[in-house]
Amino acid sequence: MTSPSRAAIAEFFRGYSSPSYTYDPTLTINDEFSRLEQEQQWGPEEGHTHRKLFDRAVHLAHFFWKHEWGGYAFREGAGYDHEFWRLCQKKGWDEDRIGRAVNEYLKLRGGSAESLMAARDTMPEETAPLEAEAIPEITYPEEEEDAQTVHPDDPEAPEMRNVIAAFFVTHSSPNYTYTGQAPRIEFRELIEVRRRAWRARDPRGTWRQDFRETEEFEALDRGYHEAVEERFDGLLGMRAEATEGYRMRPWESILELFRLGDIPTSKTKASKIIKQIYVNIYDFLEFLEEPYDSSAGEGYVTGEDEYMRASMLCHPSRAELAQYSRGNDKVFPLEMAKGDGTLKLLLQPLWGGRAGVGIEEWDEEEEEL
């Protein structure tokens, strides 16, 4: 599986602290558990019980890890239940979203809803994120008031696991700060800030020009869509790795999620099947961000509820997908998608120029994978 939240998994190991055992964060979690087994000298039955607790803790750590973006990170030494409510508070989730998170969390954590609710009533007074967790305020020299980019190698730049969040953070400026909104909304705000700065630098020379035709915009546009695709691939990969004993290929995950029948042996054949559904890329990305069920430990099989939610993403026809994508500014340019990427399998021809999607077909060579 993908690396879980280190701070969250540390809570499991620290529960075994004793004069003879101290958690070593420099080891991999599997090596650390092996070391713990040796220290505790458990018998087969007892070892099996603690292994199940360890597996549960790993999935719980993944639950927190997948939300570690936009300034949130699991606090070192924090209790799981208190940290769950702090996560809900940090994300600003509404009642419906919290309800879904509670259900997923309790599958992993065990215990009752009553005990979890009780933890909410005993939250520490200081529930705000620590300074180290928040996106740091970035200062600029006075002579560079129009500075627009924070370079990734800047020691002040925050470490971000989510590549979309990292893209926005690296483009922070005095007039733009990443706030964790939906990516397309953040990008729109970033572009508007950069457009105004571009216009202000040369009002006369730019008054008849379109910022979207500049090299500056093209670089931002490409960087943003590359980040979206990388995040998309990462989330599909996380889903694929959740299957024990067999790692699904990303396109197999799509077929399995939407229940599109028997999985073919080639990516090309799979693409023809996937073309039968009309799904907006950005809606699918948000779906992958939120409802991934970390509790699936014995092979990931789409549950009925998740399948129903996935089905709601499907539009009846390409025309309706086109109308929806354009009307809601949720269009992914075909030319930005990697030629051999999984995202491109979902792109549909909509209208000449942009896709929500996709406008051109590409050479489909039979590819046995």
Q: What do these coordinates show?
A:
This protein is mostly helical. It has three domains: 6-121, no CATH class; 142-213, no CATH class; 225-346, no CATH class. Helices cover 49% and strands 0% of the residues. The protein is built from 15 helices and no strands. It has helices at 6-14, 29-40, 44-65, 80-91, 95-109, 113-121, 163-170, 183-201, 203-206, 215-241, 250-257, 267-274, 281-289, 304-311, 318-327. The longest helix has 27 residues, at 215-241. Residues 127-161, 291-301 and 353-369 have low confidence and may be disordered.
Taking the sheet with the most strands, its summary is: none
By helix and strand content, what is the structural category? mainly alpha
* Gross geometry: globular
Q: Return the string of H and E elements.
A: HHHHHHHHHHHHHHH
What are the segments in which pLDDT stays under 50 over at least 5 consecutive residues? Answer: 127-161, 291-301, 353-369
Question: Tally the helices: what do you get?
Answer: 15
Number of strand segments? 0
Brief overview:
The chain is an all-alpha fold and 369 residues long. It has helices spanning 6-14, 29-40, 44-65, 80-91, 95-109, 113-121, 163-170, 183-201, 203-206, 215-241, 250-257, 267-274, 281-289, 304-311, 318-327. It has three domains: 6-121, no CATH class; 142-213, no CATH class; 225-346, no CATH class.
